[in-house]
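Final report, Chapter 2: Outcomes

The project's central promise was a pipeline that accepts a single protein chain and returns its three-dimensional structure in a standardized token representation, suitable for archiving and comparison. That pipeline is now operational. To close this chapter, we reproduce one record exactly as it appears in the project archive, with the input sequence first and the structure output second.
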Amino acid sequence: MDKHKNLQEFFEENVQLVKDYFETKTNIYKLKAIRTTSKVSGLFIWLIIASFLFFLLLIFVGLVLGFWFSELTGSFVSGFGYATLLLFTIMFLITAFRKQLFIYPLIRLFVGMMASDDELSEKSSEQNETTLK
């Protein structure tokens, strides 16, 4: 009976500590999710802006090439035709090598971001544990 009473007292005393522990753990996971989501969304917005600027640059390069080829050939039609052919060739090559140029580097970047987040959180938790000891 004495053991049962001691066990009951132990649970009554530590119930609040367990609740605080789980609440703190859920808050930590929420904060990690917010940090990861904000980093990924920031990178995504940067990619959208960079791709818009790239396509804008591509338009101006196409115009410059068109006028330059027109100067060389003496005809606007053939000059802009050559520029269009060159840009289609570049777009075909980019499409053919999209995995090597875009998809795999982005995957490595996201995995690296997640790994660095995990390493930072592990280091900070190790530092907290050594400070508590």
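Archive annotation: The chain has a mean pLDDT of 83.
This record, like all others produced under the grant, will remain available to the consortium after the project formally closes.
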